[in-house]
Design brief:
Helix content is about 20%, strand content about 20%. The chain is of the alpha+beta class. The strands form two sheets. It has a six-stranded antiparallel β-sheet with strand order 1-2-3-8-5-6.
Amino acid sequence: MMLAGDHSGEDLQRRVELTNALMFLTRGQPVVYYGDEQGFIGAGGDKDARQDMFATQVQQYADEPVIGAPSGARDRYDTGHPLYRQIAALSDLVEANPALADGAQIHRYASNEAGIYAFSRIDAEEQVEYLVVANNSDEPQQASLSTYGSRTMFRAIYGERGRFITGSEGRLTLDVDPLSVEVYRAEKDLRGRREAPSVAMTSPAAGGVVGGAPRSVPRCRRTSSRR
């Protein structure tokens, strides 16, 4: 509903798809609200939140716009709706790759303006790195990212269907389409360490920004399970 205040048509649909992907692939549990999969927007407020799934007899609901489908009084159980298919694909992706649900999230890159936001997800038991790269800009964007894998193949499992090999320092460069999200999975496990990484503590100044990322992931055991 908030996006619809400034966007419409295909542009609105692409932005909703971007937010769906970020909701499923970042930390936290995704929540799909009634009618999200059918492109419902709603008019706001408790009573006007969402129209009926069945062919409504309420003129207000019939007149409300719907993302990816015509408005009007009609049944809304379309399993071929683009948002239905996207949410189903994201659900299958997360189920098949649990690191995307509750793995550690490691910051990799964030543009100062609209552009690329990238992070890794790593499950403590699986020890495989997933790289999630989002572009919230209206234009294609490029970024050079660090990973934990030196000379490691990363293959796309969502979005693009490409693959990349990191350099000796574990870096790779990606081009990302506008308003899109891509997910890559490393083709080999992370290497174990013989000793714990060194830790240096720095106190930020008032108003300072905490940034950077460790160069290794310590192995640890889960202490809780997903509910």
